[in-house]
Write a structure and sequence with these properties.
Elements: E1 18-20, E2 22-23, E3 42-43, H1 46-59, E4 65-69, H2 78-91, E5 97-102, H3 104-108, H4 112-120, E6 123-131, H5 135-140, H6 147-160, E7 163-170, H7 178-190, E8 196-201, H8 209-215, H9 224-237, E9 243-246, E10 258-259, H10 260-277, H11 280-288
Parallel strand pairs: 1-4, 4-5, 5-6, 6-7, 7-8, 8-9
Antiparallel strand pairs: 2-3, 9-10
Helix pairs in contact: 1-2, 4-6, 7-9, 9-10
The structure holds iron/sulfur cluster.
């Protein structure tokens, strides 16, 4: 198999063979991320893709589900995607579900009819690391789009019947804009229909622009407690009928997952308990020991 640089695999998705179709990230400018700094973006050569699909077919010719990998493979044009889907179906005729990461900007180049075609070919779910729905925060972390782009582009996925997951980056706005980040993100998420909403806390990894800004005193990161409080504001305002999960460092001991609307009160109570009882030093040590997103 051809795998290049860091592999980011959705830890909540059902296990399935991994097929790389792009390398690096087409954006590569988010201030909290160094995952693909040393990997120039490029499309994987079709020969590599075909070889990898053949290898997957040798292991299990009846594979029904694939996780397409790359930072944002949904960047590929409709024609290129179609070509890749044709190769996949030639060797793996039982594949019905293909999932992949996508940036909001990746959707822009595709019409609703093209998205419907991709859905028919098996691209049924995309993972969108939105991080925020607040314009100030999106600019601050260099995401490369605004709230109105999110709403406009993701509505096209709704029309095409492609399911999507959203991620909220807890702590991304620092102290100065925390409240707006939480409230405005929930407002944007509420206008759409994610099947999963996930949340991870911002970790300032060495070498990230945001980490360097924090060292110079230009970014004021939230404490673990403040991060929990921000997450609580976000969840209080969130009204999505989706599954909710978090890989925040406290999640291990708390019931912070499940169908969100059904469990909202329970989730908020668990979170309040965590806020009242958290061990700041232990949690911040856990975070400092993290090595990747
Ligand atoms: S967070 Fe995602 S979009 Fe942003 S630079 Fe990293 S891989 Fe690319």
């Amino acid at each position: 198999m051809h795998y290049t640089g860091t592999l980011y695999i959705n830890p909540y998705a059902p296990p399935s063979p991994l097929l790389e179709i792009t390398q690096g990230c087409s954006h590569n400018k988010c201030k909290f991320c160094t995952m693909y700094k040393d990997v120039p973006f490029r499309m994987s050569p079709m020969e590599w893709i075909e070889e990898d699909v053949q290898e997957i077919a040798q292991h299990d010719p009846h594979t029904t589900r694939l996780q397409i990998i790359g930072a944002d493979p949904f960047i590929l044009s409709f024609d290129r995607m179609k070509e890749i889907c044709d190769v996949i179906h030639r060797y793996l005729p039982d594949v019905k579900v293909m999932t992949m990461n996508a940036r909001v900007t990746n959707i822009k180049s595709k019409t609703v009819d093209q998205l419907k075609e991709l859905r028919k070919m098996g691209i049924t779910e995309v993972y969108l690391g939105l991080e925020s729905g607040d314009d100030w925060t999106l600019d601050r972390i260099h995401k490369g789009y605004h709230a109105n782009d999110i709403i406009e582009q993701v509505k096209k996925l709704d029309e095409a019947g492609i399911d999507y997951w959203f991620a909220f980056l807890n702590g991304a706005a620092g102290k100065s804009h925390s409240h707006e980040h939480a409230v405005n993100s929930a407002k944007v998420f509420n206008q759409l229909h994610p099947i999963f909403v996930g949340s991870g806390g911002l970790t300032l990894f060495p070498g990230t622009e945001l980490g360097e800004e924090a060292k110079r005193g230009e970014f004021d990161p939230l404490t673990e407690k403040e991060m929990m409080e921000e997450l609580k504001i976000f969840l209080e305002n969130l009204e999505c009928d989706a599954q909710f999960f978090t890989h925040h460092t406290i999640a291990v001991n708390l019931n912070l997952s499940g169908n969100f609307l059904e469990n909202k009160e329970k989730i908020l109570k668990s979170l309040q308990y965590a806020i009242d009882n958290l061990d700041e030093e232990k949690l911040s040590n856990n975070r400092n020991n993290k090595r990747s997103l």
